[in-house]
Amino acid sequence: MAAWAGESTVTTAVSPIYGVSLPQGYRQWELIAPALEDAPLDELRTVLGNKLAVDALRAGTLPLPDGAILVKLAWKRQRSAAFPSATVPGEPTTVQVMVKDSHRYAASGGWGYGRFIHGQPADEAQHKTCYACHQARASEHDDVFTHYAP
């Protein structure tokens, strides 16, 4: 399995529009929920959160407090060579970050977004779609798709 860009070192590169970077130590954060994306992306995903985000989602506290950070890791799905009926992570595709700061990101529902491919921020066009998609599909849940998995 390929290693995630930024797994051993975190890039200082920031996303266009929002200025979000990969948070230090995010790979050691607690799991909030797994996810599976069918066609066309065909990805396995996990959402991790810092302590503030995990505690709020676990308690059902919305909106999430300022300082909450969510990180989604995504990989292409592939069949396990050892156990073909199992799906395992394949090639990594993106690391996506949401940072809650209701003052800094007031124009985007209080959230700043970052999408990273091989540790580098995706282009501005990809970032322009973040808030619109979250607001259109998850406005009743503080623009967050993920729910805490018990």
UniProtKB/TrEMBL annotation:
<protein>
    <submittedName>
        <fullName>Cytochrome P460 family protein</fullName>
    </submittedName>
</protein>
<feature type="domain" description="Cytochrome P460">
    <location>
        <begin position="23"/>
        <end position="146"/>
    </location>
</feature>
<dbReference type="Pfam" id="PF16694">
    <property type="entry name" value="Cytochrome_P460"/>
</dbReference>
<dbReference type="InterPro" id="IPR038142">
    <property type="entry name" value="Cytochrome_P460_sp"/>
</dbReference>
<dbReference type="InterPro" id="IPR032033">
    <property type="entry name" value="Cytochrome_P460"/>
</dbReference>
